[in-house]
């Protein structure tokens, strides 16, 4: 199978877009149809949602997986979702999920990453690894190494910023220098920026996305929902598919190499 996260094949940034969470077949189709029609080939959607505190929407779980499979009969796209346990991996593989990512709350825990890594052994599924919630470069590197040691080679990393105490400008501070330093350890690995979770608010998403391209990131993962204000998770930061298209059209090409 052709590698998805092959840097050399990329002439332009890789764009991944889709809802924070999959909420219903209607919400999923209404959101992704315009995205796929815009040319977006990789759709994201949360099935299992790790929430910091209990009581908010934690994802629909496996019941949503057959809907994704059905939608692939109508639209051409690859589907990416977060996995946080061996059970998630097993369920997602059974239902033809194309790409996995490890979330920021999992990357902090070597036991969790190791469990996921073991469950991936023998597969050739592409995996994206988000930075941990805390500003610990070694934890991020270690998570990548664990996935590599399980025999997975089609790997990208996602920079989604780092937790803050109290409200500051960003929901998660970008601390760009950590991403820059990460790159010195894995110069050939695709680095994708997640401006949605860094900014936490719609108005800041374009600025962060442009900054990432200026720093020569290889791609962007951006949350989009057809009615963002009604979203069951991360309502403030999701963009309509139309606004996402405008954002992408207005991005300037990369200027600086690092
Ligand atoms: C997400 O991608 O919706 C998500 C929960 O991200 P993170 O792990 O970066 O918080
Ligand atoms: Mn989200």
UniProtKB/TrEMBL annotation:
BP GO terms, sorted: chorismate metabolic process
GO molecular function, one term: chorismate mutase activity
Protein EC: 5.4.99.5
EC class: isomerase
Keyword entries, A-Z: Coiled coil, Transferase
Protein name from the UniProt record: chorismate mutase
Source organism (scientific name): Algoriphagus hitonicola
